[in-house]
Amino acid sequence: MIKLLDVTKVYPRTGNALEEVSLHIPKGSFVFLTGHSGSGKSTTLNLIHMGEKPTSGEVRVSGYSSLRTPRRDVWKVRRRVGFVFQDFRLLPGRDALANVAFALEVTGTPKGEIQPRGQRLLSQVGLASKSRAQVHEISGGEQQRVAIARALASEPLVLLADEPTGNLDDRATRGILDLFWELNAMGMAVVMATHDLELVRSYPAARVLELDQGRLVYDSSQTEGKG
Amino acid sequence: MAHAVREAASAFRRSPLLMGLSSLMVGLALFVVGLFSLAAHNLRLALTTIEERVEVVAYLREDIRQVDLDAAMETLQTLPGVEEVRYLSKAEALDRASQIREIAEVSTDLEVNPFPASLEIRFLPEGRTAETVEAVAAAAGRLPTVEDVRYGQEWMDRLFSLRRIGGVTALVLGVAFAAVATLIIGTAVRIAVFARREEIFIMRLVGARDGLIWLPFLLEGAATGFLGGVLAILLTWSTHQAVFHFLFALEWIPMLWMWGGMGIGILFGILASNLSVRRYLKEV
């Protein structure tokens, strides 16, 4: 479903962010993308989301190629790829439901369906009772759940998460990871970037990809295969 | 579209001061264009009135035959740009001259009528150019029945160069103030885009179409241009009324100019918004 073929990304000011990275993430996978700060985790996620194009190589997502997808069609890729961030990126001054409803509205959900679908999505992430709470009134873990509900608005095939637990305590982190596993069990692929190796070790069923200075240096699935 | 209209309207509700100031600035820029249009239109009317008097007078030789006169008139009448060729006999020339008091006093003592017969050549509006007038005067001068040709060349050259200067000035100032209006609208929209950058970011994140993102801003720009245009018309109208009542008679600009100006205001609003939003969308 997601393929990176010899992908290199070079930024004019900071140099190589990724160097000849090739990987394949099949449907329904659960992948931890690990590595130090600056190793290329966020760049990888951004390339999969088609927020930018690789300098060389090709990114393929659900049938769309970075080489052949014009800018005007990138929205089609993004509806198949949900994205959550460390800092949640919720719209301030709106309640939880309004944040999810905004995503539903701008992705073309019929007006009459927006509120009930928004409620359902919040229920799915365990926030049914907080739908009318302003985002600044709820905890970090709950804010991340709102962001996940928003990412699910377009019923994506894969959820990308860039250090989603970086701002959360242990309990909230476990809650978010459990939610990711639930979504994964329903068939959604999850690719989570994190530098928290302890967290990664506590979910041994997940595939682990490690990046170092822009190179893919470890892939647990290949190690298992060799072993 | 409904989403775009709602979003554009909410921008006016959320930041009425910003949108109001933008409209005011655009209105003032277009007001200058309006004032200039008013002056240009009235100058043009005055020049047209003077231009209508542009004529070539071909003085005829003495005792020409009727057949030669008819041939000369026919030749001149068929020249490009000529509207009318009128024959003025010696007697008519004397009559006309006699309307001047000094000449009237001596005309009764004249034994011989000193005024020659002439052909007065008037021009169609499109024929009132230096080139056409000169060509007609030269053609008239070549006719054997014609003794002399007069058309006030120096005066006419000045008139036409005045018209050219007016045209170029209007064009340059019009373009300059249109650019000012575009920059103002562009800046206002950039501020509006910046104020809503988080929303735009989320819209792109979840896969909203580009059209859905920039359409509200285009509508905002168009509305700013429209409001600025209305304001400019009101200010220009007030100025026109004040000048008309307290200083001198002044014609109001043609309706086509007015609606054209309004249309251009809206167009520049859309154009400026389009540029600003597209530039921003490339960055996020």
How does this structure look, described?
The complex is a heterodimer of chains A (227) and B (284). With 227 residues, chain A is of the alpha/beta class. Helices cover 34% and strands 27% of the residues of chain A. A six-stranded mixed beta sheet of chain A has the order 6-7-8-3-9-10, sandwiched between helices. In chain A, helix 4 (111-124) packs across helix 5. The mean pLDDT of chain A is 94. With 284 residues, chain B is an alpha+beta fold. Chain B contains ten helices and four strands. Chain B has a four-stranded antiparallel beta sheet with strand order 2-3-1-4. The longest helix of chain B is centred in the middle third of the chain and has 43 residues, at 153-195. Chain B is elongated, with a radius of gyration of 30 Å. At the A-B interface, helix 2 and helix 3 of A face helix 8 of B.
Helical region count of chain B? 10
Regions with little confidence, pLDDT below 50 for 5+ residues of chain B = none
Report the order of strands and helices of chain B. HHEHEHHEHEHHHH
What series of H and E elements makes up the topology of chain A? EEEHEEHEHHHEHEHEEH
Of all chain pairs, the largest interface belongs to: A-B, 21 and 14 residues
**Main beta-sheet annotation of chain B:** 4 strands, antiparallel
Order the strands across the largest sheet of chain A as they lie in space.
6-7-8-3-9-10
| Cα-atom radius of gyration of chain B | 30 Å
List the helices and strands and how they pair.
The complex is a heterodimer of chains A (227) and B (284).
Chain A: E1 2-11, E2 15-25, E3 30-34, H1 41-48, E4 56-61, E5 64-65, H2 74-78, E6 81-85, H3 96-106, H4 111-124, H5 140-151, E7 158-162, H6 170-185, E8 189-194, H7 197-201, E9 207-212, E10 215-219, H8 220-226
Parallel strand pairs in A: 3-8, 3-9, 6-7, 7-8
Antiparallel strand pairs in A: 1-2, 1-4, 4-5, 9-10
Chain B: H1 2-14, H2 16-51, E1 55-60, H3 66-77, E2 82-88, H4 90-98, H5 101-107, E3 118-123, H6 130-142, E4 146-150, H7 153-195, H8 197-206, H9 210-246, H10 255-283
Antiparallel strand pairs in B: 1-3, 1-4, 2-3
Helix pairs in contact in B: 1-2, 1-9, 2-7, 2-9, 2-10, 7-9, 7-10, 9-10
